[in-house]
């Protein structure tokens, strides 16, 4: 049985795993319907503006608040999203131009401690707007065969299809928006 650690947040106790995965863990499927991929595309297209709305009016104190003990601050989460989705864009391009490329992993925790994570968050949000415009341009109108092209992740040896990448990053955005809302005291 999983040990459940309690953490006091906004004057109530919360289970630690609920803070780490407030919308649940990502679960990849072997295949996705056309309706699901259409929804993923809509979610990816809308994400930068959704993030912008969530951070509008965020205070310096909220930006400096971690979403869980030993977790990243809201500021680190926002910069991480930009870095992660930048990697998604590169991985998509490799997958569309190479046969089952083996991608490069990166140390997210180390990146979160680099100097650029102290820059204003708007830089990363603006970067996300450009990244997502390019991602949508690449993914729009792909047929099922192309959406089943894949890359191999070196840490898990798992082969991610473009459909599963769409699902993953649609989840990833929502996952981190929940973290930011936790830092703002808006998550219940």
Description:
This protein is mainly α and 188 residues long. The chain has helices at residues 16-20, 34-55, 60-63, 74-97, 108-111, 121-139, 144-147, 162-184; strands spanning 6-9, 12-15, 150-152, 159-161. A two-stranded antiparallel ribbon has the order 1-2. A hairpin with a 2-residue loop joins strand 1 (6-9) and strand 2. Helix 2 (34-55) runs antiparallel to helix 6 (121-139), helix 2 (34-55) runs parallel beside helix 8 and helix 4 packs parallel to helix 6 (121-139). The protein starts with 5 loop residues before the first strand and ends with a helix. Mean pLDDT is 91; it is low at 6-16. This is Putative metal-dependent hydrolase. Keywords: Hydrolase.
Q: What's the rounded overall pLDDT mean?
A: 91
> Would you tell me which CATH topology applies?
Four Helix Bundle (Hemerythrin (Met), subunit A)
Number of helices: 8
Shape: globular
């Amino acid at each position: 049985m999983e040990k459940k650690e309690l953490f006091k947040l906004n004057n109530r106790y919360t289970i630690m795993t609920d803070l780490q995965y407030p919308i649940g863990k990502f679960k990849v499927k072997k295949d996705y319907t056309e309706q699901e991929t259409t929804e993923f595309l809509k979610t990816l297209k809308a994400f930068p503006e959704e993030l912008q709305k969530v951070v509008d009016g965020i205070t310096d104190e909220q930006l400096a608040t971690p979403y869980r003990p030993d977790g990243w601050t809201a500021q680190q989460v926002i910069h991480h999203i930009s870095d992660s989705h930048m990697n998604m864009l590169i991985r998509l391009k490799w997958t569309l131009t190479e046969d089952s490329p083996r991608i490069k992993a990166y140390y997210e925790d180390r990146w979160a401690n680099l100097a650029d994570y102290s820059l204003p968050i708007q830089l990363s949000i603006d970067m996300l707007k450009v990244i997502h415009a390019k991602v949508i341009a690449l993914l729009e109108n792909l047929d099922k065969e192309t959406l089943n092209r894949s890359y191999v992740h070196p840490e898990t040896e798992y082969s991610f299809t473009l459909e599963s990448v769409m699902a993953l990053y649609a989840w990833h955005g929502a996952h981190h928006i929940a973290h930011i809302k936790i830092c703002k005291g808006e998550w219940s």
